[in-house]
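pinning this so it doesn't scroll away 📌
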Amino acid sequence: MLTRYLYIISLCVAMVASFTIAQAQSTALTPAEGATHTYRWGDLVPGDNYEFYLTADASGSTVLDDSAVAEFDFVGSPTGNVGQDATVFLSINWNTGAAANIYYLWFKVTSVQNGCSNRRYVRITPQSNSFDVLAENIPVDVTESCPNIASSNGFNPVAGQEDTGTTLLRFKVRRVNGTDNPLTAEVGDTYNWSFTASLTSVPDWANNLAIVSVEGSGNAISFTDNGNGSYAVSNVAGSIDEVIVTVKIDNLEGGSQVVSMLLNNMIEDTTNLNDSDSNNDRVDHTIKVLPEIGTMNGV
């Protein structure tokens, strides 16, 4: 009976909804290239032998060799004995090139009591990866601004005690096409995501360039200073599509500065999806020239 061999794919308690949610990017039956998904079968008989295998056709006649086909990799052994929890699973890495084909994942179980076998399959249609994490100015089309000369940022206009102060820049890091998390009932709740932001400036001088805060949905998000201008932002909640990164840099009198933030190591938790578009990983912002004021001489 089908109910006896109920399949629970990637714990998809809301699989049908996952196809209709706009953010749903990679599912067990439509995995993105680069994603890892887990396939579980339950309500089995403890002690029975089982086997997972992939074929190129629904008839099951063309079995694909995991070691010979580069488009997928089994994580762990696809064969074994059913444990006392009556559930077995296999994780599959869907690699580059998988989207060019359709696969049929078979599950076969053999009774240790009488040697008889039964089997089921699901059709899997991989797709190209569109998970993307990108960097933007705020607003996106504002790529330059004047230095901040507010006293709250350390600017001091008193002659003889002058201090050019600090400018704060705000960049947006945005995640698109996250994978819907089937373990939660909330629509649009996707898996957590992470990235690393690297800061540089031109000219490169002792300007105290640094990230001072990361915020998402009005809440502070922790980050780690890796040194050399690199900062790791980990485990951004899946319900948060974008975070605001605030960067500080000392003002430079008499010259402009270009501050750049480059994203790397972007990854989605659970599926292990990587960033799909490297063309939008960098954002630049020009701080225009702070007019130079020389020494005042009395008359």
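📌 and the second one:
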Amino acid sequence: MLTKLSESATIQLPKHIISLFSLSAGDELLCDTDGTAIRIIPKELNPKLRIDCFGQLTFGYAGKYLYASNKKACELLALLLMERGKPIRKQRLAETLWQDAEPENALDSIYKAVRCLQALGKREGFIMPVRADSGFMWLDMERVESDVIEFERLYASGRFADYEAAVELYRAPFLSKEFYEWLEQWQAFYDIRYMNMINALIESYRESNPNMARYYQSIQYKV
């Protein structure tokens, strides 16, 4: 489908496309571009980029593991994830990731890392949710899911059933297989929450279910 766009363009979808996706008035569509083509996809049919951070940093899309050859590109994605969609100055990101490089070289390296991520997304048929504008960069959190985001949601609920689920998510300390300079404060952040939930579960089960209490005691020092 070819469409000529103006500043206030309206895109009409062919009837067979509307029928194919069972679209109706009011449905939301995702419109994105990789710089060469515009893709329009019903939001519910567009999987999210999966970023898992407990233990080793891993990425996935539509159930498939993704591999990026540029290690700094992977680190950039993890760093942006921890900012939860907040726009961060590119210069600050560059200085964090390439601390020993000259500022201009560090900034050039961050552009190379982004191009690597964009190329990875293009190969796999999706738009990498890294956004940039006016010297800032951020992650489009509507198109991202992560074990750390789920962990924080479960922790915030205050319910013991959610604590149990969060403890199971915590397979290993935050990015424990990586060696990034900025990790220490985030590792402490998640370690403390893990221990808080473990201690709460031990106390909850101490009288009612001693076996469960002993189980949580046995994994108490996984951190």
